[in-house]
Write a structure and sequence with these properties.
The chain is α+β, with helices and mostly antiparallel strands. The protein has helices spanning about 10-15, 30-40, 85-105, 120-125, 150-155, 165-170, 180-185, 185-195, 235-250, and strands at about 50-55, 75-80, 135-140, 170, 175, 205-210, 215-220, 255-260, 270-280.
Length: about 280
Amino acid sequence: MNRIFDKPVEEIIEKRKSVRTFGDKALNDVDKKELQNYMDSLSNPFGIKVKFFFLDAGENRKSLGTYGVIKGTVDYIGAQVNDGPFALEALGYEMEKLILFAASRNVGTCWLGGTFKREDFRKAMDIENGKLFPAITPVGYPRIAKSMTDNLVRFISKGDQRKPWGEIFFTDDFSHPLSREEAKAYKEVLEMVRLAPSASNKQPWRVLRVNGSFHFYEARSPGYSDAFSYDIQRLDLGIALCHFHLTASEKNLQGRIMMESAPDIDVPAHHEYRFSWISD
């Protein structure tokens, strides 16, 4: 097994939950340094530069707005990237890998894409003009007892629900769902994709297996990204790929990620090809 973290990635993915209520203890220096070092080591399969920012909110914490979603003592991590093809997928991939690393150290996180005051954080993190700044995450130690707000947000976002296999994984074409048994060596890999977090838990990825390779499509929710200048669901495709890639690597399943390998098939409405995992 090619271990990526100090724990199996499947164990980390299965146990990680979005944390919105934190305790009063700030991150200790060891965890803070480990997170910052890991941020500096990150890369993505698209070869796109993503820049991370660690914000020790300190005295300014109360002035940074999350619309009441985040409570307790936390620092924040955000990221910027140049706009362009696969920019959001690259950022989603790297940020999810960082979030899984934090989870391996028992540090709580929560993807925030729309529930934070973007301009306040942009200024506090000194994000460059013209750069995409689509998401942040709080980082801190979870409070054992969740707040009413935390439970409400989880209920509204359906945070504990995931789509069944038959809705997101297919074989040969989009009229034939892929079963766990048919997935064979990739059964656990795809299950980790199914468990990946996404905005409003919409899971906008569809994975099509053709001749042993896996092709990722975005099943766009019409109107969902209208409030943004970009398609925020592309972040989710990067998150899904992160789970796929890390799990496949731990299982020594060899392959490479390519962006121009769409199979010649009919595609449902609002579906768009993004990238492929070509098995070796």
